[in-house]
């Protein structure tokens, strides 16, 4: 029978260079590989696309905002703007 360590969840995140890596920690931000936009996991726009099934294949995850930006993603103008992120104003 597998031990608790073998049953631990492994998450696939993108690193600074945009390359995937395995992580024991869940991503803090989600993004869209096609549009190169990242945002909060509870973003209503992203959740709407996920529910429609139009987004699942393009979905990526990041450990933090700095990693998302260094991978070439811009912040979501919907969910990140509410936080006062000046980069979210840039389209």
- Which shape, going by the Cα principal axes? globular
Q: What characterizes the major β-sheet?
A: 4 strands, mixed
Taking all residues together, what is the mean pLDDT? 84
Evaluate the radius of gyration: 14 Å
CATH class: Alpha Beta
* Sheet/helix structural class: alpha+beta
- Measured as a percent range, the helix fraction is 10-25%
Fraction in beta strands = 15-25%
Strand order of the largest sheet: 5-3-4-6
Number of domains: 1
Question: Summary?
Answer:
With 91 residues, the protein is of the alpha+beta class.
What does this entry look like structurally?
The chain has 91 residues and is of the alpha+beta class. It has a single domain, classed as DNA Methylphosphotriester Repair Domain. Helices cover 16% and strands 24% of the residues. The chain contains two helices and six strands; from the N terminus they run ββββαβαβ. It has a four-stranded mixed beta sheet with strand order 5-3-4-6. The protein has a two-stranded antiparallel ribbon with strand order 1-2. A hairpin with a 4-residue loop joins strand 3 and strand 4. It is globular, with a radius of gyration of 14 Å.
């Amino acid at each position: 029978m597998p031990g608790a360590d073998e049953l631990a969840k492994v998450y696939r995140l993108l690193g600074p260079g945009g390359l995937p890596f395995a992580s024991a920690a869940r991503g803090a931000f989600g993004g869209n590989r096609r549009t190169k936009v990242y945002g909060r996991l509870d973003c209503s726009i992203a959740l709407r696309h996920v529910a429609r099934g139009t987004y699942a294949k393009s979905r990526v995850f990041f450990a933090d905002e700095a990693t998302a930006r260094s991978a070439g993603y811009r912040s979501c103008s919907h969910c990140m703007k509410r936080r006062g992120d000046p980069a979210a104003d840039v389209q």
